[in-house]
Amino acid sequence: MNPDARDTKGAAPFSRFEWLLAGRYLRSRKREAGVSVIAGFSFVGIMLGVAALIIVMSVMNGFRTELMSRILGVNGHVIVLPIDQPLTDYDAIAGRIDEVPGVAYSMPLVQGQILSQGSGTASTGALVKGVPQSALEKLTPVAGNIKHGTLDNFDTGEGVAVGSRLAERLGLLLGDRITLISPEGDVTPLGTTPRVKSYPIDAIFEIGLSEYDAGFIYMPLGEAQLFFNSEGQTQSIEVFVDDPDAVAELQPAIEAAAERPVYSVTWQSQNQSFFSALQVERNVMFIILTLIVIVAALNIISGLFMLVKGKGRDIAILRTMGATRGSIMRIFFITGASIGVSGTIAGFVIGLLFCLNIEGIRWFFSWLSGVDLFSSEIYFLSELPAEVQASEVVLVVLMAIGLSFLATILPSWQASRLDPVEALRYE
């Protein structure tokens, strides 16, 4: 009887018989050691590729979320700047801006670059921000992360709040005096002399962004106006909104609320290149790491082709015993797909466990190598972040399984097309 005539009959699709044969083909034999080695490399490749994709995508997501939350938490979402005339009526303007729907609060600001010195010879540059106490208390990244001291009576005192890294670099503690030197000082007959003044440290904060913790000093608005020769005025008004992503929609209303000639700059225009670079880097890393999964899928193809070639006699006997072409194709499909699915599941588990314990793993490898693997001076953040997004994990898992399934189709189809007469002719 022609074997093709029996293609419409046989075992049910994905029956126990097909799974049993596929399982036997996956197990190692001396004669098929090469196939087993290739299958092992395919499993490891897919596992590492999936784990690496999940880890890298989660770390990149964590970077972006942490940087955005901390940068936007400290810096205004809209910066209102004067045109022609200085901002002498900043209190009235800030009050009107606060009434705009969608605005959380506004903060009049005087700022300037200075040289800071401690009790010794150490000195470093810093940015002084003069702000009202009411606004500083709403600045959660600062007010919510006071390590030492307090912001009580900030407006009425002469003390300042400094970042933890700045205090550490200058060797200062709570209650010590920090000396600030501004090049924009007093005008004398001999020229402009730098302004030098010391202030007690009333609070030490730690935002978590090394750049800010090492370079920010908050000063009462009145003291900053005197220090920077800006009595009775501010340089700008920083506006914080409820939804930073919709800041462009609020920008016209904020400018209109000023009721005087002003122009404004949003956080998006100021930091667009930085966040765009993060997005490009994330996409490129995804493409590069996907190649690992593709290479592993190609290993599945080569392994199955070798298996089909070595199992020609078995396939011919199965066909003569009544196995259909569809059954043969499904047997080899299960064999190859099992490698891909098991590798994907293992990679998913490893990637998820790595992300959940990433900070502990970083500390372990830093201790093992004796090198700081995530220097806050370079990467801005004091801790390695990881944010696992379910949608991205599902995409990675489906992509890996899909590539594994595609890799099994051609070898499985070739196995199903094998002519049993030709296969047994020389046996």
Quickly list its features.
Lipoprotein-release_system; elongated; alpha+beta; 427 residues; disordered N terminus; 16 helices; 2 domains
Structure description:
By secondary structure, the chain is an alpha+beta fold. The chain has two domains: 3-67 and 274-424, no CATH class; 85-260, no CATH class. The chain has 16 helices and ten strands. A hairpin with a 5-residue loop joins strand 2 (103-117) and strand 3 (123-131). It is elongated and about 110 Å long. The two termini are 20 Å apart. Residues 1-9 have low confidence and may be disordered. Keywords: Cell membrane, Lipoprotein, Membrane, Transmembrane, Transmembrane helix, Transport.
What is the gist of this entry?
By secondary structure, the chain is of the alpha+beta class.
Helices and strands in order, then pairings?
Layout: H1 16-26, H2 33-74, E1 78-82, H3 90-98, E2 103-117, E3 123-131, H4 133-136, H5 140-143, E4 146-149, E5 160-163, H6 164-170, E6 177-188, E7 191-205, H7 210-213, E8 216-220, H8 221-227, E9 236-241, H9 247-258, E10 262-266, H10 267-310, H11 312-320, H12 325-356, H13 358-369, H14 376-379, H15 390-416, H16 420-424
Parallel strand pairs: 3-8, 5-7
Antiparallel strand pairs: 1-9, 1-10, 2-3, 2-6, 2-9, 4-7, 5-8, 6-7
Helix pairs in contact: 1-12, 2-10, 2-12, 2-15, 3-9, 10-12, 10-15, 12-15
Transmembrane segments: 33-60, 284-308, 328-354, 360-381, 393-413
Subcellular location: Cell membrane
Protein name: Lipoprotein-releasing ABC transporter permease subunit
